[in-house]
Amino acid sequence: MPERKTYIVEHLDPELGQWSELEYAAIARETQERGGGNNTFMLSSLPAGFGVPERLSEIPAFRAETRGVEDMYGTEELKGRVCLLDPQAEKDLNPDDKREFDVFLFGGILGDDPPRDRTSELRKKGFKGRRLGPVQMTTDTAVRVTRMVVEEQFTLNKIPYTDFPELKFNEHESTQMPFRYVKDDDGNPIMPEGMVDLIKKDADKSIDDLF
Ligand SMILES: C[S@@+](CC[C@H](N)C(=O)[O-])C[C@H]1O[C@@H](n2cnc3c(N)ncnc32)[C@H](O)[C@@H]1O
């Protein structure tokens, strides 16, 4: 029997911005491609009538859910199978957690620098927590790293990371990202499709705002 894992991002921001949409599309695609069709990526706590962007709805592994994680997994029986990925947890995620948990829960919040500990909104609900090391990751990186530990049985210290990478747009323009990413074979941070363009557009916009 294949093991089924569910990755849930509980929507906590007031709206779904472009950054989040690209991150969630990357999570949905990887859940589909790497999970052999067995795993699910769920975006929970969505407002009623939420228009799911097509780039998400077209991926079979994706589910949109208006219920919150507590409504779905709040009973004593189910609660213990849910792991909250929590930057403040005492214990780090390890490959044996594959047996302990079926559901991995993440805060649907954009990274901030310095981090404001908004994951605390989910911590209050009493799920068991695991940390992914001491450095803040983007949400799609946090799901990617969790999948590598749980499904591919990496230990956290064996995953190739790049911390605070600099994105160079051209000779004169670059920006430093205040997060940890997984590195690809060429040493570049793995980022959602379209993200570098969006970051560049946002950087150009903030420069324009100065004038
Ligand atoms: C972009 S992070 C936002 C963290 C946010 N700045 C905060 O104040 O909590 C989004 C989610 O990714 C997960 N995450 C990111 N880095 C993590 C880490 N080092 N350990 C555990 N979870 C992490 C958490 O579930 C977090 O809610």
What does this structure look like?
With 211 residues, the protein is an alpha/beta fold. Helix content is 31%, strand content 18%. It has eight helices and ten strands. The chain has helices spanning 18-34, 54-57, 69-73, 76-79, 97-100, 120-123, 139-150, 195-209; strands at 6-11, 40-44, 62-64, 82-85, 103-108, 128-130, 161-163, 166-168, 174-176, 180-182. The chain has a six-stranded parallel beta sheet. A two-stranded antiparallel ribbon has the order 7-10. The site of S-adenosylmethionine (SAM) has 22 residues, from strand 5 and helix 7.
Query: Which overall shape is indicated by the principal axes computed on the Cα atoms?
Result: globular
Residues in helix, %: 25-40%
Low-confidence stretches: none
What is the structural class? Answer: alpha/beta
User: What's the alpha carbon Rg, rounded to whole Å?
Assistant: 17 Å
Biggest sheet, open or closed, and with what strands and sense?
6 strands, parallel
Strand content: 15-25%
Listed once per kind, the bound small molecules are: S-adenosylmethionine
**Widest β-sheet, arrangement of strands:** 3-2-1-5-4-6
Specify the oligomeric state: single chain
Distance from N terminus to C terminus (CA atoms, Å) equals 61 Å
What is the total tally of β strands? 10
Count of DSSP H/I helices: 8
Average pLDDT works out at 93
Elements, N to C (H/E): EHEHEHHEHEHEHEEEEH
